[in-house]
Amino acid sequence: MRMMHNFFRIGGVAADLPHGWIDKCLDFCDYFLPEVAEYQKLITRNPIFLERVEGVGFIAEEEAINWGLSGPMLRASGIPWDLRKVDHYECYDEFDWEVQWQKEGDSLARYLVRISEMIESVKIIQQALEGIPGGPYENLEARRFDRVRNIEWNDFEYRFISKKPSPTFELSKQELYVRVEAPKGELGIFLIGDNSVFPWRWKIRPPGLINLQILPQLVKRMKLADIMTILGITIGVLVIVWLEREISAGIQQRIGPEYAGPLGILQAIADGTKLLFKEDLLPSRGDIRLFSIGPSVVVISILLSHLVIPFGYRLVLADLSIGVSLWIAISSIAPIGLLMSGYASNNKYSFSGGLRAAAQSISYEIPLTLCVLSISLRAIR
Which segments constitute the NADH-quinone oxidoreductase subunit D domain (predicted)? Predict the structure, then answer.
């Protein structure tokens, strides 16, 4: 949903699933479950790992509630609270799955909850794929609009489907809070209406940041090295980078990252080493000044584009009539910075990498620009 928000439509989706996609997804589930056992063999049963996380960062049940923790942080402290079970939303009640929780409340318990949730997530995916409904998917909005107008339709629904004019409605003078279970915890949206088309107050409760507010209490009288254990940064980054390479390689059908070393771990080690050192290394035979200016050009173009991007109703740094065109023009400067750094390195491989990065950036900008211009022309009409 976060990455493919344009796929969903009123009453269905934009296109049918690619041929064979469900089978590939089920194959991945069958592949992933044995891999979790391998992860547990490498990490969970490692005595060095257990010594570093067991009994560290303890959060009692009452503390977890008082600090407003949610998600795996809350469930690791002995509270089996999952909004998918509590609020019974979507179709989760139709699936056979259990809330994963631990009662120890330390860093090891939080790790075990996340490992168990991987297995439960695969079970949910498998059941959802087996029960996915069929039916038409093309032009659902248009076909619904072509029907005889239902007398039960309200004016807002009619305008939303027909797109004429843009739908708006007044928010009544009341408070509303909705919530869902996100991977890191409770994601909530809080609205206060004031009988206008704009909310008087709109607050998003992030699932992850709120869990960090207990950190100052946890690190008291702790060793500096234990802070990383409590945050889960060290292992978390390695596992996430590794899984990202594995999953991306599987989607893009790139064999290398999947088989570079045992379980494809060599690719993750190479990426981790690059992330640690690449920003601090300067080519000895290159143009140092030009090499350093390149990243600045990229960052400056991004910062300048925020001049015309509205952050809220009537909240924009420079309210220009040509704001969209200016934003497109400023954003197109970024590939120049990529080329500058590649050229200034005085290395054909680095220059090829700069060309590739610039080409990829341009490939994103062209369809984005066409979409923005089409919306702008529509607004002018």
Answer: 1-232
